């Protein structure tokens, strides 16, 4: 019985160790979703207990050959990774494009904007005529579709039309609901914005 117990304990220890090497959380930031003031706006607190823990901001172990500062978007797992030194990454929960609006590829951050103006593209206005009132731009604010921050993605052909951006719709995190852009909780996009540099590589897969 003692031998079996030792084997069981050893097995559990090994499982925990392996979990740590394959993405186990090293630090959670579940307390970072409270109300905050930013550029004259008061962001409301997020009922983070209603968001699955896997989508809370956290530092995880992450094995990649990409250099620190690279952003890797895993659309199937609904996670965005900001690569850090020493085999770590800051991981954020995301919302992704709904069926028919998915995309993948490599881009660069061409620009960063705080409290950006959102201008729906003509194709979106055609699908949703009620957005025509924003054809010249939706002013910044708590209800703006791009949220508190936006990172604009370009590739060799120019502007992809896709953004990494905030959203007031926290319940959409972990779901496929957007028109292709990658959305984060506003508190998370502010954190990512402060880390990411213009020119950084973005891989969407």
UniProtKB/TrEMBL annotation:
One GO term describing the cellular component: extracellular region
Residues spanning the signal sequence: none
InterPro entries in the cross-refs: LD-transpeptidase, LD_TPept_cat_dom, Transpep_catalytic_dom
Active site annotation, chain numbering: 165 (proton donor/acceptor), 181 (nucleophile)
Molecular function terms, GO-annotated: glycosyltransferase activity; peptidoglycan L,D-transpeptidase activity
Record keywords, A-Z: Cell shape, Cell wall biogenesis/degradation, Glycosyltransferase, Hydrolase, Peptidoglycan synthesis, Transferase
CDD domains listed in its UniProt record: YkuD_like
L,D-TPase catalytic domain location: 69-205
GO biological process: cell wall organization; peptidoglycan-protein cross-linking; regulation of cell shape
Pathway the protein contributes to: Cell wall biogenesis; peptidoglycan biosynthesis
Family per similarity comment: Belongs to the YkuD family.
Protein name in UniProt: L,D-transpeptidase
Lineage: Bacteria, Pseudomonadati, Pseudomonadota, Alphaproteobacteria, Hyphomicrobiales
């Amino acid at each position: 019985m003692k031998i079996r117990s030792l084997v069981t304990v050893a097995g559990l220890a090994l499982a925990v160790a392996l979990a740590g090497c394959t993405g186990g959380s090293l630090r959670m930031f579940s307390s970072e979703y409270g109300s905050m003031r930013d550029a004259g706006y008061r962001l409301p607190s997020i009922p983070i207990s209603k968001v699955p823990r896997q989508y809370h901001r956290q530092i995880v172990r992450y094995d990649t050959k990409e250099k620190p500062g690279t952003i890797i978007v895993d659309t199937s797992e609904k996670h965005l990774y900001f690569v850090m030194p020493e085999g770590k990454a800051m991981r954020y929960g995301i919302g992704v494009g709904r069926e028919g609006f998915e995309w993948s590829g490599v881009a660069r951050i061409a620009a960063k904007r705080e409290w950006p103006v959102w201008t729906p593209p003509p194709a979106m206005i055609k699908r949703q005529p009620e957005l025509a009132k924003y054809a010249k731009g939706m002013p910044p604010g708590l209800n703006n579709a791009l949220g508190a921050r936006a990172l604009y993605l370009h590739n060799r052909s120019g502007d992809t039309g896709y953004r990494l951006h905030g959203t007031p719709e926290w319940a959409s995190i972990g779901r496929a609901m957007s028109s292709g852009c990658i959305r984060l909780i506003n508190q998370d996009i502010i954190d990512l914005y402060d880390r990411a540099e213009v020119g950084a590589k973005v891989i969407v897969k």
